[in-house]
């Protein structure tokens, strides 16, 4: 069974920084693209950043230049560095990964449980 476990959320003042981490564990053959999403109260869940297995990254316009996504393939981990945080960044942040388990020939989406990020003075 595959699990994604996130950590690193919390309360931070505007202009501050946080580092979110998401580790995949279990019976994993390979991991494809990995993503961070966020969902604010009353809004849909939107993608924030993405990184391919080769390290190519992509960002939502609202976070470009402030957030950085990275991954450690040896540790099956994806990181989201959040800088210059704004109140509108407040949301529950979820990691998502396309993972292939040994018994399958295809990739399946897995989700973490979410971690709360609150930006407030």
Summary keywords:
four-stranded antiparallel beta sheet, mainly beta, seven-stranded mixed beta sheet, single chain, 121 residues, 0% helix
Task: Tell me what you see in this structure.
Helices cover 0% and strands 55% of the residues. The chain is an all-beta fold. Strands 2, 4, 5, 6, 9, 10 and 11 form a 7-stranded mixed beta sheet that branches. A 4-stranded antiparallel beta sheet has the order 1-3-8-7, with no helix packed on it. Strand 7 and strand 8 form a beta hairpin. The model has no long low-confidence stretch (mean pLDDT 97).
Task: Chart the SSEs and their pairings.
Elements: E1 3-7, E2 10-12, E3 18-25, E4 30-39, E5 46-51, E6 57-59, E7 67-72, E8 77-82, E9 91-100, E10 108-111, E11 115-119
Parallel strand pairs: 2-11
Antiparallel strand pairs: 1-3, 3-8, 4-5, 4-9, 5-6, 7-8, 9-10, 9-11
Radius of gyration, Cα only, in angstroms? 14 Å
Give a short account of the largest sheet: 7 strands, mixed
Q: Helix- and strand-based class?
A: mainly beta
Total strands: 11
Query: What portion of the residues fall into strands of 2 or more residues?
Result: over 45%
The topology string of helices and strands comes to EEEEEEEEEEE
Overall geometry comes to elongated
Put simply, the count of helices is 0
In a nutshell, what does this entry contain?
The chain is mostly beta strands and 121 residues long.
């Amino acid at each position: 069974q595959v699990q994604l476990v996130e950590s690193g959320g919390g309360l931070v003042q505007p202009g501050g920084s946080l580092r979110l981490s998401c580790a995949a564990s279990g019976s994993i053959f390979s991991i494809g693209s990995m993503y961070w999403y966020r969902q604010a109260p009353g809004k849909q869940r939107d993608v924030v950043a993405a990184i391919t297995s080769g390290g190519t990254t992509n960002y939502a316009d609202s976070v470009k230049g402030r957030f950085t996504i990275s991954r450690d393939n040896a540790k099956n981990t994806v990181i989201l560095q959040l800088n210059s945080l704004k109140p509108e960044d407040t949301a529950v942040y979820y990691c998502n990964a396309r993972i292939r388990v040994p018994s399958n020939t295809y990739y399946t989406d897995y989700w973490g449980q979410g971690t709360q990020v609150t930006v407030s003075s």
